Amino acid sequence: MAAEKTPVENLTEDQAAAELEFLASEIARHDVLYHQGDAPEIPDADYDALKRRNDAIETRFPGLQRSDSPTLRVGSAPLAAFAQVTHARPMLSLDNTFSDADVADFVGAVYRFLGRLPDGSIAFTAEPKIDGLSMSIRYENGRLVSAATRGDGTTGENVTANIRTISEIPQKLPAGAPAVVEVRGEVYMAKSAFLELNAQMEAEGRQTYVNPRNTAAGSLRQLDPKVTASRKLKFFAYAWGEMSDMPADTQLGMVEKFKEWGFPVNPLMKRLTSVEDILAHYHEIGLQRPELDYDIDGVVYKVDELELQRRLGFRSRSPRWATAHKFPAEQAFTTVENIDIQVGRTGALTPVARLTPITVGGVVVTNATLHNEDYIKGIGNSGDRIRPEDHDIRIGDTVIVQRAGDVIPQVRDVVMEKRPSDASAYVFPKKCPVCGSHAVREKNEKTGKLDSVTRCTGGFVCRAQATEHLKHFVSRNAYDIEGLGSKQVDFFFEAEDPALQIRTAPDIFTLKKRQEQSSLTKLENIEGFGRVSVRKLFDAIDERRSIALNRFIYALGIRHVGETTAKLLARHYGTYEAFNQSMKEAADLSGDAWTDLNNIEGIGEIVARAIVEFFKEPRNIEVVKSLLEEVTPQAAEPLAASDSPVAGKTVVFTGALERFTRDEAKARAESLGAKVAGSVSKKTDIVVAGPGAGSKLAKAAELGVQTMDEDEWLALIGG
After folding, report:
1. For a surface tag, which of 37, 426, 479, 554 has the fewest beta carbons within 10 Å of its beta carbon?
2. Shortest CA distance to 550 belongs to which of 532, 568, 577?
3. Has residue 643 been placed in a domain?
């Protein structure tokens, strides 16, 4: 909504009311996704931003606070599948801080509230913020009687039977414990257990889990405690609810008492007095984060003395005496355990950092791309340094890993203070690690510069390139053949029996026939397949004998041709026959066919050359010919009705367009069935020229191509 972009200080009262309504609904939706579904849609940082904006608006317009305001609730309502438990004392959440300055403000606010000078006389505890599921466990007369999730802060889900399966949680407290004890903490799954579980799921062909937090929450909410018991959940104790007697008078003393009673407590908890020491501990924990076997997303600070906690009291949903200092979103520290080289379908040697597992942006990251030889040294594609000269990436280095959205994780920088003394510079291989062929960096004929990518010269002699071609061919956005994934491709490629071999794409579609004719190895008799799965595989292959033209082109694995380029080619040429014929005619990189290919908007000379070169290679011609004997690419469907005045016409936009952006003009033309080209040729039908049009307008005049200004274009297409 528009008001979201308006600074809070500039909001009108009506805008503020409307936005508070939106925020209440949106935050409630995300609460349900996180607390009940264990499937958050957005990162914690985005969620925190929504809540901070809601708080800021309510602060400026206190009279507009809604009854369903996020500031008046914690978490989300418990699931109906479990009996409900009302907490004897509410389980409130913590306010968050995001910077060193915020932490200093928190400490200063504690002193001001208590009427003291900031003289370092107040102690605080600092401990890792565990990324798990909050839990309250109640004991009466020393025996565990109930356990409940946080729920909405007042009422949680009764998960007592499942909590009893966690071996770290004592079933009985030692003699001398108070008659009523509620120990609170976090249930979590260790990263090692999570990776082990995912490996098991993958081996069984089942969907893997996204991260340990959601997996732990889902495991704890199983209706069958046996499932929970199999998930190896763990627990850290750090707080309490109802207590019939207090065995200590400080936060640290209470946690030490929990440890005496047999509860696991976090060993990184410290008692500190100065802001400087608190922040130093925060940054130290951040550096230790990759070495921990559990996920953390920040550090929690609490006033240590319980009497001061009592005096400070609570706001509506959080204590004044505690805050959570969150780590920066989408970044984490971890260790480079090794650097491997992956060989892709185009022969590119891509270095990959094998990392100590770390959660970044809600996903467990174990690998990160290092792009190429120069990136490891700290040099970008432009030749400029992207990191200080000595910040090359080495095995054993502690590094900052960055991930945004679904982007592949990258190593952003090296923490030089943590570099091992024996770490040596990484030497990029000069030979392909798969086939032993020479690996070279080609020189750009135009610029004279070395290509940033090192490539194997082995071609199809290289097993990696051959199998990667096949894996690309059957990938989701290409042929998407169910039951023929990466492991299956490796199996069929390595098979010695010709009745099982898949070495090129056409072999996929002849597999069934070869199996029917073979009297030797039957696929259904091989472990991991079976009669039903083989039938399903053959059916899935047969379903793909007819496929959209853009998918067919993308599946061929032409260098530089991704999904978008494949769609452009399919739409421009319409049929595979027309596409193939044009590529033959463009073989000498000249003539109308070559010009026409280059004129497709979004395809430059580098891409055009790669496409033409692909169709000049005899082996590629042979494979595609065999493939077309088994499959039929469908003609591309036109995007617009034939009655459009520009349907089927090739249009070029040039000059400084004033009525719309170039992207808007292109999208509108294509929606009406026109083809948008980047340059003028004999096949161009219309040139739309804005102010400053130069060579393209002159070329149109030379070729007699129709030209018009923006107003005339809008009149032609109906505004």
Report:
1. 37
2. 568
3. no
Residue 311 sits in the same domain as residue 205: yes
- Residue 15 has a CB neighbour count (10 Å cut-off) of 18
* pLDDT exceeds 50 at position 75: no
| Active-site residue identified among 5, 51, 129, 191 | 129
Q: Are residues 276 and 352 in the same domain?
A: no
Judgement on whether residues 538 and 553 belong to the same structural domain of the protein = no
**689 and 622 part of one domain:** no
Q: Which residue has the higher pLDDT, 341 or 517?
A: 341
Total count of residues recorded for the chain: 719
Q: What is the mean pLDDT of the chain?
A: 86
DSSP state of 328: P
Q: Is the pLDDT of residue 218 over 90?
A: no
Asked if 696 is an active-site residue, the reply is no
**CATH number of 579's domain:** 1.10.150.20
108 and 178 co-located in one domain: yes
Last residue within a domain, chosen from 278, 311, 326 = 326
What CATH number is given to the structural domain containing 425? 2.40.50.140
Q: DSSP assignment of 15-62, as one string?
A: HHHHHHHHHHHHHHHHHIIIIISS--SS-HHHHHHHHHHHHHHHHH-G
Structural domain span for residue 348: 331-439
User: Does the reported pTM lie above 0.90?
Assistant: no
Average pLDDT over residues 493-500: 89
Supply the DSSP symbol for 495: -
Identify the weakest region by mean pLDDT among 61-75, 540-554, 697-711.
Answer: 61-75
Could you say which of 516, 544, 572 is where a domain stops?
A: 544
The pLDDT value given to residue 76: 46
List the one residue out of 583, 112, 102 whose CA is nearest residue 324: 102
Of 8-22, 68-82, 432-446, the one with minimum mean pLDDT is 68-82
Contacts of 119 (CB under 8 A, 6+ apart): none
Tens of pLDDT, residue by residue over 572-610, are 899 999 999 999 999 998 888 998 898 887 788 888 988
Output the 3-class SS for 267-317.
Answer: CCCEEECCHHHHHHHHHHHHHHHHHCCCCEEEEEEEECEHHHHHHHCECCC
Is the residue at 83 inside a domain? no
Domain count within the chain: 6
Dihedral over alpha carbons 494, 500, 503, 505 (to 10 degrees): -140
Domain identity same for 203 and 119? yes
567 shares its domain with 601: yes
- What's the rounded Cα separation, in Å, for the pair 33 and 37? 5
Bigger pLDDT: 277 vs 696: 277
The answer to whether residue 640 scores a pLDDT higher than 60 is no
CATH number, domain containing residue 61 = 1.10.287.610
What percentage of the chain exceeds 70 in pLDDT? 90
pLDDT digits (tens, 9 = 90+) for 274-291: 999 999 999 999 888 888
Residues 509 and 527 in one domain: yes
Residue 93 and residue 153 in contact, taking contact as beta carbons nearer than 8 Å: yes
| Helices 275-288 & 100-114 angle (0-180, nearest 10) | 140
Greatest Cα pair distance in the chain: 100
Domain assignment present for 385: yes
- Mean pLDDT value of segment 381-406: 83
What's the number of CA atoms in the CB half-sphere (13 Å) around residue 152? 17
14 in a structural domain:
yes
